[in-house]
Amino acid sequence: MTTNEHTAEAAPEIARRGILKKTGGALSVLFASKTATIGLIIVLFWVGSALFAPWVTKYSPTEQDWKAPNQGPSMAHPLGTDELGRDLWSRLAYGARIVLVVMPVTEKIWLPGGTAIWGVFASLLFGATLGLLGGYRGGWTDEIIMRLLDAMMSIPIILLYLIIVAAMGASAVNVVIAIAIVGTPGVARLVRGLALDIRTRDYIRAAETRGESTAYIMFVEILPNAKGPIIIDAMLRVGYAIFAMGTLGFLGLGLPPPSPDWGSMVAKGREFILSGSPWAALWPSLAIASLVVGLNLLADGLREETMRYQ
């Protein structure tokens, strides 16, 4: 057997070892931080609840028990029921699916990836493109892009969400569009700052000397070397998107009923707090808070550990 044949056979094994080494390194950084570990546990709880919602609860999110409206926690309903007798744990688990796992485009079409995930991904896509373009090209290109984004950022975030969703209507797709529009300026400013620093490096000069295109330099040379801060910022933005979804749902501009939208659950449940049934408002409020806190802890822990290795 020739040397080339040995090399060809060994290539897949070398690649596999390289992937395992990188994965192990990432996990070691993650578990080195107690803050990141706690955040990961919280996030994994909700991701697991969303993925296995049909198995972790015996009720559907719309199933009504007219004999048990506004009931407290019991053996039949671990977290109680809402005003229509719907199981609260079921609605929380299926609500997590919409946030983190699947996005309902229509009643029959669902995309993998939660509504909050798609919204943040879209904001990263547009924001990174604008930030790379302004940061690398500079000049009038940078001025025009940044001034337009500054004008967007001058509008209060909640007001901007309300304007967008109220104009287009309440649906998961429109919530994604709103999250993308609101998040794009912040992502663009972050990526622009990173690009301004990276474009002065020697490997960028080498790429320019080779005659590489602007798109190649932006997306192949600059973006991969800026991915660390962008990934951490994306985790924080998922938390902001979840909070925004809760706010829109509370104001009646989230997902249309009977979707198990956490924000609309709080809005409906608060009507019965003074009558001695706080559960329908308490549990979705805690769900939103815990998931956002978990993502923030995960991002903060990763940022602390990556800073330590720089």
SSE pattern, N- to C-terminal: HHHHEEHHHHHHHHH
Q: Any low-confidence stretches, pLDDT <50, length ≥5?
A: none
Average pLDDT over all residues: 85
Q: Whole-number radius of gyration?
A: 23 Å
Structural class by helix and strand composition: mainly alpha
Major sheet attributes:
2 strands, antiparallel
- Determine the CATH topology of the domain at 115-256: MetI-like fold
**Using DSSP, what is the number of strands?**
2
Distance between the termini: 44 Å
| Beta fraction | under 5%
Membrane topology: Multi-pass membrane protein
Family: Belongs to the binding-protein-dependent transport system permease family.
Keywords: Cell membrane, Membrane, Transmembrane, Transmembrane helix, Transport
Protein name: ABC transporter permease
List the helices and strands and how they pair.
Blueprint: H1 3-31, H2 34-51, H3 53-56, H4 88-101, E1 102-104, E2 110-112, H5 115-137, H6 139-153, H7 157-168, H8 172-198, H9 202-210, H10 214-222, H11 227-250, H12 262-269, H13 279-308
Antiparallel strand pairs: 1-2
Helix pairs in contact: 2-4, 2-13, 5-6, 5-8, 5-10, 5-11, 6-8, 7-8, 8-11, 11-12, 11-13, 12-13
Subcellular location: Cell membrane
Transmembrane segments: 26-47, 116-136, 148-166, 172-191, 234-255, 280-299
Main location: membrane
If you had to describe this structure to a student in words, what would you say it looks like?
The protein has about 300 residues and is an all-alpha fold. Among the domains are: about 1-30; about 115-255, MetI-like fold (Orthogonal Bundle), CATH 1.10.3720. The chain has 13 helices and two strands, in the order ααααββααααααααα. The two termini are about 45 Å apart. α5 crosses α10 (about 215-220), α6 (about 140-155) crosses α8 (about 170-200) and α11 runs antiparallel to α13 (about 280-310). The model has no long low-confidence stretch (mean pLDDT about 85). It has a two-stranded antiparallel ribbon with strand order 1-2. It has helices at about 5-30, 35-50, 55, 90-100, 115-135, 140-155, 155-170, 170-200, 200-210, 215-220, 225-250, 260-270, 280-310, and strands at about 100-105, 110.
